[in-house]
Specification:
This protein is an alpha+beta fold. It has one domain: Alpha-Beta Complex (Cathepsin B, Chain A), CATH 3.90.70. It has 7 helices and 8 strands, in the order βααααβαβββββαβα. Helix 2 packs across helix 3. It is globular. The N and C termini lie far apart (about 60 Å).
Length: about 260
């Protein structure tokens, strides 16, 4: 049986909550998601890494690097970091001191996302922004997960979800707040969400999805291939920024790249 550690803690004392998208915007304007999508194929080296979450309660940070693996892999050059990088960011965000088990107390997702955006992970990656999304609105979640390559969750895992093997299905069950965990989804197929956690994969039903305590969508320019200027879903960066701003983000519109035969002189 694979070792598992948890580590997602509740909201910070002064939450940095973004307004839920659907509370003030017409999300029907977003393009529909395809019937099925999967962003995991180009990120298997990263997603198969435990990233120390069998030893430390660093799931919030490990998930961030799984996101980075998906985003960079889809753009053509997958980022895989060392366990030492995970520990350094976990220390910066959660206060963990290597060699002192009493400091291994996990961390909350909003602090981690804020840190990732403002300071950047130790490998230099920064995200452009993050927004909350209502996990009960399945169709909207599909749309934003497809546009931005995944969703970042926080939940008190039901006891029945612990110690499950690759390929197991997580269905609706009673949450246990003592089992706080961060995990992500990078696809939707066969009526279930493709879940990345603990170096493996599970599948989550829509019924379980609706129970999530936290769900976030992340924008990172790493997802765009620098050669063709498009994400794996074939959306270019200026359009992604426009979609982001249409759901509550506040980024300046980037200049569209000049055609190759244009001169900048």
């Amino acid at each position: 049986m694979m070792a598992e550690k948890l580590g997602r803690t509740p909201f910070p004392s002064q939450p940095r909550m973004r307004v839920r998208l659907e509370s003030f915007l017409d999300l029907s304007a977003l393009p529909p998601a395809p019937a099925e999508f999967d962003f995991t194929a180009a990120a298997m080296k990263s997603l198969r890494r435990m990233y120390v979450n069998d030893q430390l309660g660093c799931c919030v940070v490990s998930l961030g690097y799984h996101f980075l693996g998906v985003e960079s892999g889809g753009a053509g050059s997958e980022t895989v970091v060392s366990d030492g990088d995970i520990v350094r960011d976990y220390s910066a965000i959660g206060g963990y001191v290597p060699g002192r088990p009493s400091t291994d107390n996990g961390c909350n997702e909003q602090d981690a996302l804020h840190y990732w955006q403002t300071k950047g992970f130790v490998n230099g990656d920064k995200i452009e922004g993050w927004l909350t999304v209502n996990p009960q609105d399945i169709e909207t979640c599909k749309k934003v997960a497809y546009l931005f390559e995944g969703l970042y969750y926080g939940y008190g895992l039901p006891n029945s979800w612990l110690n499950t093997q690759d390929g197991a299905t997580w269905d609706a069950a009673r949450s246990n707040p003592n089992n706080g965990h961060a995990f992500g989804s990078f696809g939707w197929k066969n009526g279930k969400w493709t879940i990345s956690t603990w170096g493996g994969f599970r599948y989550m039903t829509d019924a379980a999805h609706k129970n999530m305590d936290e769900a976030y969508v992340i924008l990172n320019d790493t997802m765009v291939n620098k050669v063709n200027q498009k994400a794996p879903n074939a959306v270019d960066w200026p359009s992604l920024v426009a979609y982001w701003n249409s759901i509550g983000g506040k980024l300046p519109e980037p200049p569209r790249p000049l055609p190759n035969n244009w001169s900048t002189l």
